Amino acid sequence: MRGPKKIAVLIVAGLFVYLSMYTWNLRTGHLDALSSYTGLDVSSFILRPGLWVSDKVTGFWDRYVFLMGLKQQNDELLDENSDLKREIMLLSSRSRSAERLEELLHFSPPEKWEFSGARVIAQRMGPAGMLDTVAVDKGSAFGVDADMPVVSLDGIVGRILNTGFVTSSVLLLTDSNSRIAVIGESNRSPGMLSGKGYGEMLELRYVNLNAVIEPGELLLSSGLSGIYPKGLPVARVSKVQRSDISLFLTILAEPLVDVAGLEEVLLLKRAPVNPASEAPDAPAGEEATSRGADQ
């Protein structure tokens, strides 16, 4: 019974206190003023951590979205920069190619010879290749035949080895099977220039011991082989050595053409002969007799 009584006493005491406070507040208004001040402070104390967390979360999200936008913009700029670099490289390559082609167009072929341009599409040189050759993008469909001379603006490159329908292989002057009859530009000493393999010097053979030839002299095609026109530059003499046991000089020469850097070449072909221009002139007596017979 003690428990219910204590509860009843507490309820009655609480009601008494409440009614007393209520009555006192109605007369003075102090509790309303106190609650207005303390309520704001309590609510501020409760809400301030929530507002701080909200500000931090909102700021983090804004920065995250901003950074994501910057990253996307940066990726787009990087892609654009790569595209521009590729375009510049392509335009630069086309510009250099156009310059080389313009120079090739100004090439003056030897008399009674014609030329046409071709692009190098493949290379086979060095120890991996049985022959030092390059492939060009013209074949029999373009009138290319075996043994046609192949040149560049620097000098002789080689000759056509094999022809396909639309491509051909060129035997380079550096190949050990290559032979070019040459003559010195200054001293006119003849010889046979042969290759010794890619990356090696050319060898000038069959030059007599008493022949006059000097290092630095330019070697030109002599036209005696019947393949190359006369007067085309081929190589430059780099070393001349005399031997006591040989009838010929030992001569090394450096090719004028960088065969590894070839991109375009010129194919030479003999110009077609006009029968009318090649027909021998009739003697004056025969011409007069013919006119008399016609009359």
Task: Give a written overview of the molecule.
- This protein is of the alpha+beta class and about 300 residues long.
- It has two domains: about 5-85, no CATH class; about 115-270, Thrombin, subunit H (Beta Barrel), CATH 2.40.10.
- The protein contains four helices and twelve strands, in the order ααββββββββββββαα.
- The protein has helices at about 1-30, 30-105, 275-280, 285-295, and strands at about 115-125, 135, 150, 155-165, 170, 180-185, 190-195, 200-205, 220, 235-240, 250-255, 265-270.
- Strands 1-2-5-4-3-12 form a six-stranded antiparallel β-barrel.
Gist of the model:
The chain is α+β, with helices and mostly antiparallel strands and 295 residues long.
Itemize the secondary structure elements and their pairings.
Layout lengths: L1 H27 L1 H76 L7 E12 L8 E4 L12 E3 L4 E8 L4 E5 L6 E6 L5 E5 L7 E4 L12 E4 L11 E9 L8 E6 L8 E7 L4 H4 L5 H11 L1
Antiparallel strand pairs: 1-2, 1-12, 2-5, 3-4, 3-12, 4-5, 6-7, 6-9, 7-8, 8-11, 9-10, 10-11
